[in-house]
Amino acid sequence: MKLPANTVISPENVPRYPTSLANITQPIQIPSTAPPQADHNGLIRNRQKLRANLAGMQRIGYVFQRRATILMSGALFRLGWLAVLLGWTEFALGAAGFSVNPSAVTNDYFGQLTLAITNVTGRSVLVEKFYDLNANGFADSGDLLMQSFVVADGFIPKLAGVTNLNVPYDTDGTTNGRIVVQVNYPSTDTTFNLIEGPYLYRISSPSSAFASVTQSFRVWQKLLTQGISGVVYDGGSLSPLPNALAVAFDANFSAVGGGKADNNGRFTIYVPPGEYTVWPVLGGYIASQAGGFGTVRLGNSVTNADVAMTAGTSLLSGRLLDSVSGAGLPGVAMYGYQSSNFFEITFTDASGNYTFEVNNDLWTVGYNAGQMPLLGYVAATAMPSTNVTTDVSNFNIPVPKANAVIYGTVRDDQISANTLSGVEVSATDVPGLYAASGMSYKADGNYTIGILGGDWWLGPTSSIESASLPRGASRTTAKAPRSSDGH
To answer: Are residues 60 and 104 in the same domain?
Structure first.
């Protein structure tokens, strides 16, 4: 089967308008006066003529000045209307509409968010999701870019002719000026999508064809009768660290929920009964992997799961990028793990750049594998390390793009073989170098997993326990197509 064409969205053709004004009248030529005669009477007559000529010249000059002023005014008038026309045209062509529905969910929601984008005929659109740390309704420099992808009017991403259900796309598949994107929630990224708080979805044009538009989106915690809470604080000064994010992980280290620390550094995360570890997220700070912890019992909350963080002393930076094109991967969570049990989490910026502030030691840098399916990439199972003794830069991490696909339907084992939604399916290649996942997002039970061509183990995520043959998993072979099928 053939690999679909890598679609490149070229910059849109922006209408051009003439800036020169035609038929501008040339300056008036004023003839020179004849030399005066030598005789007295002639001098008098010439003086009279001179006065008359001077008066005529003044009148001509006035007419010329008046005409030139009128011409210039007309030119300015035409330029003014041209500017208005250009502005109106840019507005007419560039005013994109944007809505998010639903605009708020609880963190146990499973379904789709509908992003409706209008007045974008034939255009590509950059969609970005931010955590609005200061809750001011604007995407400021301090806000966290947590998701970023490009959609195009009428374009559906395909691998070997199969629609990749993990990658956001225009669901109507028609170039009609309206892009409807069904964003799966929480999708395969079940960590950071569960954090309570204010978010922003922003659309913009990669070619600056229209002004950006921002809409708010809110995640609320599902209220339970118990939870885990504590204070995030600076381990040196003992001062609280407001705006730190906190994520609760269960005994299997699966994220259950999250929240943001208030001005006193205090967080509260509602969770079912069980054992939990809380990891904080705050740029420039590292924390122990032990985190805050506690055993939550039904109806009883843990209130002292405090977490200390320490400011880093050295910079560790680089880019998360496409292994072939070198393009940066934006809005991806990056993990830094220290050999002596510390960690830090940050996010790549719009160009795929990341920066940790760490202490001097051996650090391993990884990325959120759950976000790779949304971007159409395949995660590696091993991550690179570097010994930090001073600032380290250009510690770049390449990620391969999927070039083959596994797809199918998730069903139960009953005679009726009912389709199942909300089941994550994982795949690991036979050498154990790469891992990928997908999910049955809808009631039809259909799923896709973008992979690299080769032999893979496949099974529900709960059954995938190692890179070797997991219990309940089946083996499948996928071959990477050699060429494009034109879509």
So the answer is: no
| Domain end marker among 220, 243, 271 | 220
* 320 within 8 A of 332, measured Cβ to Cβ: yes
Same domain as 284, residue 298:
yes
Residues 231, 282, single domain; the answer is yes
Q: How many CB atoms neighbour CB 168 within 10 A?
A: 23
Please tell me whether residues 305 and 316 are part of one structural domain.
no
Does any domain span residue 19? no
Q: 10-residue block means of pLDDT along the chain (487 residues)? A: 33 30 31 40 44 43 40 42 40 77 96 97 97 95 96 94 95 96 92 95 96 97 97 97 97 94 98 97 96 96 98 98 98 94 97 97 97 97 97 98 96 91 94 96 95 93 42 47 33
Global pTM?
0.77
Residue 223: how many other CB atoms lie within 10 Å: 8
Q: Both 117 and 152 in a single domain? A: yes
Task: Please name the residue that has the structure tokens 């002292």.
Answer: 304
Q: Tokens at residue 53, please?
A: 């000529």
Whole-angstrom Cα distance, residue 309 to residue 292? 11
Residue 22 lies in a domain: no
3-state SS assignment for residue 80: helix
pLDDT of residue 431: 95
Q: Which amino acid is located at 71 in the chain?
A: L
Question: 44: domain range?
Answer: 38-94
Q: Quick one: DSSP state of residue 419?
A: B
| pLDDT at residue 268 in the model | 98
254 burial level (CB within 10 Å; 0-12, 13-18, 19+): exposed
Total count of domains within the chain? 5
What's the pLDDT score for residue 251?
94
Assign 3-state DSSP to the chain and report helix, strand, coil percentages, each to 5: 15, 40, 45
pLDDT score, position 477: 54
Residue 219's CB is within 10 A of a number of other CB atoms, namely: 22
Q: What is the pLDDT of residue 340?
A: 80
> Same structural domain for residues 246 and 296?
yes
Domain of 294, CATH number, reads 2.60.40.10
Q: What is the CATH number of the domain that holds 156?
A: 2.60.40.1930
Task: Determine, yes or no, domain membership for 483.
Answer: no
The pLDDT value given to residue 459? 87
482: CB partners within 8 A, 6+ apart = 2, 3
CB neighbour burial string for 463-478, b if at least 16 within 10 angstroms, e if fewer: ebeebeebeebeeeeb
Query: Does the residue 12 lie in any domain?
Result: no
Residue 52 burial by Cβ neighbours in a 10 Å radius (0-12, 13-18, 19+): exposed
AA letter at 278? V
Q: Provide the edge-to-edge strand list for the sheet that holds 353-358.
A: 353-358, 314-322, 397-399
Residues 141 and 180 in one domain: yes
pLDDT for 297: 97
